[in-house]
Design brief:
Pfam families: NTP_transf_5 (PF14907). InterPro entries: NTP_transf_5. The structure is a single chain. By secondary structure, the protein is α+β, with helices and mostly antiparallel strands. The longest helix is centred in the first third of the chain and has 34 residues.
């Protein structure tokens, strides 16, 4: 394709450039020596921190193992090897628990799809040790949430958080609940949506019909079909600003699989996120040399794809962790704007309209009996304005 998808990558430090170079390859001594200029004047402590932050230390270790000590300090390789070992043990532990939970859910006649974790590592990398995961993400039908929670509690899991809700807004404003097993040290996220609403996405039944079965376990464990997985990885990475390069590594791997690009384009268009798919492909192409083919052209046709990809380079300037609160104010503001810019025109309208739906804060501002909660719809603008006035009035 003749299209120019080049990005301004001046934000990349020399440590980050080396990290990206190593993510593109497996161990090849000759290739390392031919690019020895990339290894000059590296702050190795910063390099290791970047590998940890972006959760790509298994890939980086694989690329560096056996490297000449004059190229990479031996203690750096040893540190990466220890991280690689810890990650491998974690993935093996998660694999066992994933199979066990899938079996329990099947016995309860609960359909479940594993979104990430060991099955993703096996499918994309061919080896569970080459991708990191801190928890298990499992998608179930929303109607089965009570059964799933009851069973997890029986298995020794503890619910990590409760969120406030009103008029069932949790069904679309949130998308998962978190459970942790204090003895096994395993965290499980139970999803009923792929991403938070109000944007639309494929239904569970649709994804179940297109499911695949993992080759990793003896008991059947199901996960997303390839096209649904592309949809999920692209939308999930975009929602987090691609702030961890591991998500781009996933995109690089899945794009190289045999995909039905016509089906992907149709799926992304149906749910108003062609530009998100284009952003993912351009970022992977520019940072990891992921090949762009003619079949991907419909995804890249979205006018804002390149701009969105350029905007995402903001998250590479520093090690941004959107999950650790409080998020610095300048990052929080940028991220809110970026999330809004990711939306199609139709989804922007839907997002703005969602502010008219009552929030739990409205019930705290003006408590009403549950039978009268419908009144929060007409009262919502008044209560919102009241809170804003009070907020500005405080010293």
């Amino acid at each position: 394709m003749v299209n120019n998808y080049s990005l301004d990558l001046t934000v990349l430090t020399k440590e980050l450039k080396l990290l990206l170079f190593l993510m593109k390859m497996e161990y090849d001594e000759e290739l390392l020596l031919n690019n020895r200029v990339l290894f000059e004047d590296i702050e190795w402590g910063q390099f290791i921190q970047l590998a940890r932050h972006h959760r790509v230390h298994p890939i980086v270790y694989t690329a560096l193992k056996g490297a000449d000590k004059n190229l990479v300090p031996l203690d750096v390789v040893k540190t990466l090897y220890r991280e690689y070992q810890k990650s491998t043990f974690q993935m093996l532990r998660l694999s066992g628990e994933m199979e066990y939970i899938s079996k329990v859910f099947t016995e309860l006649k609960v359909q479940s799809l594993v979104l990430k974790g060991p099955v993703l590592s096996e499918d994309l990398y061919g080896d569970v040790s080459l991708r990191t995961s801190r928890d298990l993400d499992i998608l179930v039908p929303i109607a089965d949430l009570d059964i799933v929670e009851e069973q997890l509690l029986k298995l020794g899991y503890e619910k990590l958080e409760e969120f406030s809700t009103i008029l069932n807004d949790w069904r679309w404003r949130h998308h998962h609940l978190t459970y942790i097993h204090p003895l096994k040290e395993v965290t499980v996220e139970i999803h009923w949506r792929l991403n938070p609403g109000p944007a639309k996405e494929p239904s569970f039944n649709e994804m179940w019909e297109r499911k695949r079965i993992s080759t990793l376990t003896s008991f059947p464990v199901y996960f997303l079909g390839r096209e649904d997985l592309f949809f999920y990885l692209a939308s999930h990475g975009a929602r987090h600003g691609w702030s961890r390069l591991r998500w781009l590594a996933d995109m690089d791997r899945i794009v190289k699989q045999k995909l039905d690009w016509e089906e992907i384009s149709s799926l992304m268009q149906q749910f108003q996120c062609l530009q998100v798919g284009g952003q993912a492909i351009i970022l992977a192409s520019q940072l990891l040399n992921t090949p762009i083919t003619e079949e991907m052209k419909p995804l890249l046709a979205a006018n804002q794809s390149k701009r969105l990809a350029q905007d995402a380079t903001f998250y590479l300037k520093e090690m941004i962790n959107l999950h650790t609160l409080p998020v610095p104010l300048h990052i929080s503001r940028y991220h809110k704007r970026h999330l809004f810019s990711l939306l199609s025109f139709q989804n922007k309208i839907l997002f703005v309209m969602s502010f008219l739906y009552p929030y739990p804060e409205d019930a705290k501002t003006l408590p009403l009996p549950k039978a009268l909660h419908f009144l929060y719809f007409p009262l919502r603008p008044v209560l919102w304005a009241w809170r804003k006035t009070r907020k500005h009035a405080l010293p």
